[in-house]
Every structure is written in structure tokens, then in C-alpha cells.
Specification:
Chain lengths: ~190, ~190
Amino acid sequence: MKYAESEVIEKATTLFWQKGFQAAGMRDIQQALDMRPGSIYARFKSKEGLFQLVVEKYVANTQQKLSTVIDDNNPLDALRAFFVSELINPEEMRFQRQCLLIKSITELEMLGDNGKQSVLDGMSTLRTCFKSIVEKAVQTNSLPASTPVDKAADWLQNQFVGLRTFALMQTDDLAIESMIDKVLIDLKTSWPE
Amino acid sequence: MKYAESEVIEKATTLFWQKGFQAAGMRDIQQALDMRPGSIYARFKSKEGLFQLVVEKYVANTQQKLSTVIDDNNPLDALRAFFVSELINPEEMRFQRQCLLIKSITELEMLGDNGKQSVLDGMSTLRTCFKSIVEKAVQTNSLPASTPVDKAADWLQNQFVGLRTFALMQTDDLAIESMIDKVLIDLKTSWPE
DNA sequence: TTATGACTTGAACAAGTGTTCAAGTAAACC
DNA sequence: GGTTTACTTGAACACTTGTTCAAGTCATAA
């Protein structure tokens, strides 16, 4: 085995994150992984099989980052720090500002059933994380007890999606931070109904 | 000329909106438009030329809808109505919940310079519309005079992006409406700095 | 030592891609 | 009436796509 699986997945993640599933051709993948088609197919079964592993690893990774937010004594500050670290990064990593899952959702119908399911499962996994964060914030009195947890979880994930698209196109880092602050303000204010 | 240009663009819009630029193959386009390759190339120069016209028409169309919001006496109510009409529609039009521009942004790098510019110009055109709405709302005292207009315009466009992705995946229309209401609440509350 | 099985190579394949082109049609203009 | 112009047709083109396969490598287990 020439390269460890984690190495390979990492390189594949970068490629899929930059180009998307469709646009990343097998020849791009072969070059990025420094592997020949036969190796890739023997190890990952297909382009989609590789993509699926990438998505699952991406979700697990994000989930882990979010779990440190949940475990923080001040979850809202930790959440802010998480947002900043995900959205403000050097130019050569700009592509990482977009969410790999959201990017994949736009090409969901071009994926087979397995790939599709991985993406959707990932979305729901992360939603659960956001819910836990809101719950923790309520427990620690960082948010009012009246906060509608489920609604706020959807909203928060939603804000994250919007922020990522905004950050992707935005060159002014301060504008991004300002947008993050707005999210934290609105999280504490009132909810409809 | 077998079909009027507006007809053709309309059909092409549906296709690109559903499948995206890349995934909509020339053979899909030929079928959707009921035209043979030569006709398409004689009239639109290339797949990207057609796409460009579609994007420009889409932007002009959205711009026009937003200008009725601007001209409304109660711009915030009109804005809410606009959101509802764009985000809550029958199942067979679900694909229209996603923003064609945002969908295109994810495949921006696969477009040539002209197509890319059309998409970016469209984004900035719509931002200007959102700014006018905020300005109008301030003028009519629907929003506090202290509202930072530029920041709010970015924020509003951003919210629209998030809402569209949310609505795309959401089956419960009430949850979408609730999310729209949250936007209108937050628009009126405080801003960072 | 031999056998197994996971992994690797690189040429090849069938199907799909966007695009071109010679030829034809028909309305508009001189 | 003749010429131009915009449009149409459908076969064909060169290239790219994801995938396969026979053959080879090499560590581990029997």
C-alpha cells in the first residue's frame, strides 16, 4: 500500500472541495492522489465510493470541531471562534470557506443513492451538533430558557450556510466578522410565534 | 425562426436551473429546446453563450420583482411576500427554490470569463436591489434611521441565500415561513459595532 | 516455501462531451 | 428575380469521461 488511507482521503478532500464532485475528473483525481486508475478502483470501488469516504470524513471532522464547542464552558464564545476559524483563512485555502456538503447538495441529483445518502446524513448529523450547542447555551444561561431549541438549531445551521457563501465571495475579513457578530446578536433575540 | 427567443430562453432556464451548467449536457439542451445543435450554435454561439443569456434574463426578472418591493408603500411587508412567493411553491417547481446565481457560483470556475462575469454582475445587481429596499424601509420609517444600509444590504442578500438552501431541503412550509419571519425580526434589531 | 489477498500499473474501452460543417429552407431586402 | 441573411438540419469530429482488465508487486499467513 503506497499511501495510507488517511493521506489519500485528505488529498481527495482538497480536490473535491475545490472542484466539486462532477468537475473533479478521474484524471484530476489520479494526479492529485498520485495513483493509477486500477489502484483507485481496487481500493475505493468507484469515483463515488471515494467521494463518499471524503464526505464521511469531512462530516466526522466537523462534528469533532463542533463537539469542542459544545463542551466549552462558554459555548457562544466558542461558537464565534469556530465561525471565525472556518470562514477567515488565507487566500490559498479560500475554497474551504464554502461548505463541502452544501456544494454537494447542488449536485445531489448527479450522485448515486449511496453518495446522496452520505451527504444528506451529513447534513442531519451537523444539525444535531448545532442543536446540542443551542441546548448547552440554554443550560449555561448564555441563551434565554425560552429559546425554541429546534427552530434555533435549523436557523443556526442555516446562518452557517449563508455565512460560508458570503465569506467565499467577500474579500474584507472585517465584513465577515461583522456578519458573524450579527448572527450571535440575533441568536439571543426573539423568535417568531 | 422556429421558436421565439423568449420561449427558448425560458426552456433553457428551467433546464439550467434544475441541472446546473455542467450537468445540463448539449443533448439535454437539444431535447429541451427541440432544436438541433447547428441551430443552437448559430443562434447562441455556444453552450456558455446560451447560459449567459439565461443568467441575464434571470437577473433582470428578479430585479423587476424586487423593484415592485422597492416601490411598495410598505417595503417590509412586500419583502416578506416576495420571500414567501420565491420559497414556497409546489413540489414540481421545488428546484426554483435554489437561487440560480448561487448554484452557478459553485461552478464558477468551470465557466469561461464571459459566463463568470455575468454571474458576478448578477450578484452585484441584486445586492443593489436589496440596498434600495433597505433604504426605502428607512425612509418610510419601517426601519430605524440608525440602520447601517450597506451592511444590512449584504446581510439581507445573505439571508436570502441561506433561506433558499433551507427551503430547498425543507418539506414543512410553516418552518420556512417561520424562518422568513425571523429574518424580518432580525432586520429591525441591532447591528454590530 | 508456497499461497493468499490486498494493492499497483498502464493500456485500452465504450460511451459521453461540446462543437463543426456542408447543405437546405425561407423570409427580407435591393 | 436574384441576393443576402438568419436560421435549421443531422451526421460527423476530436476529445474527455468513468471504468475495466490482464499482469505484476509485495507483505503476511499457513
